Amino acid sequence: MGKYIIKRLLLAVVIFFFVMLIVYALLRCLPSSYVENIARAKSQLPGSKSYQEWLDQLNAMYGLDKGIFAGYISWLGQFFTGQFGESWNYAVPVIDKFNEVIWISFWMGLITMFFELIIAIPLGIIAATKQYSKTDYTISILALAFISLPTFFFIALLQLVFSVKLGWFDPFGLIGRNHLQLDSFHQFLDICHHLVLPIVTLVIISIGGLMRYTRTNMLEVLNADYIRTARAKGVSEHKVIYYHAFRNTLIPLVTIVGGSLPSLFSGALFTETMFKINGIGYTSYQCMIAGDIPFSMFYLAFMAILTLLGNLIADILYAVVDPRVRIA
């Protein structure tokens, strides 16, 4: 197992190198450029230098006068020494801006994943064990409806019903108007109250796919020969389903859960934008359209590392949930 992990980590370093090279090249080719916008603004000031002079100066200052590969090697050296630079769009150190916006998205993602797992997996199992029944049809229709539901439409519907009509929640923001006047405990409750609608949105639009996936894999396992043999030997239906069948359904579920590790930190662009929550999804989008290379590179490198780590964890967990799996 130790040799396997070391081999996978070395492979992950190679993959990370080429993935970030592609990302860096794409960011350098963005039609929107921060330095071009700044150079254009400075060149219009009275008595200022020309646009081209400002552009050359800013490119040299930020290392954009180098070729793509040379610039990438320079960025890579700074990244591995902990020099992440300063965000061009927000004029603060990249790591400070990242720490400011990442945790609200993380907690939203973690709570969403928790409710997604405890809702979608049991419903998928129930639908599989009651195939072609009214329960199965109801769960399947709900799953397809959730998968097909446009995020922006569902958010607008929630805001109309629960904010405008009923007045239970504020339609926008993370804190209320009296937030600063509250004590620390009630400030926490205020934030939780404002997160209800965003988390409901994320849970509803995410559980449909996992429900369908769980149902499909459970049906495949329930039709296996060893399940029929267990039933023929008189094993109780509860033990057949939740001990024999469900354990063998865990491998594809582990793949999904391991692959969802980056989603805890990726944020939710539509949800954060429509609810006016300044999370990592909204912030990274603003940096990308502004051509903020330092922040975008740090964020995408962070996501690439999480993706590689999530895949490694999923592969290791295969041997935990299924004794038949042996890693050579």
Q: Could you explain how this protein is built, in words?
A:
This protein is mainly alpha-helical and 328 residues long. 75% of the residues lie in helices and 0% in strands. The longest helix is centred in the middle third of the chain and has 39 residues, at 184-222.
Output the keywords.
328 residues, mainly alpha, MetI-like fold
In CATH, what is the homologous superfamily of the largest domain? MetI-like
Gyration radius over CA: 25 Å
- Structural class designation: mainly alpha
Instruction: Encode the helix/strand succession as letters.
Output: HHHHHHHHHHHHHH
* Number of helical segments with 4 or more residues: 14
- The mean pLDDT is 84
Residue runs with pLDDT of under 50 for 5 or more positions: none
Q: Largest sheet, if any?
A: none
The CATH topology of the largest domain is given as MetI-like fold
The general outline is globular
> Given this structure, which CATH class of the largest domain is correct?
Mainly Alpha
Question: What is the helical fraction, as a range of percent?
Answer: over 70%
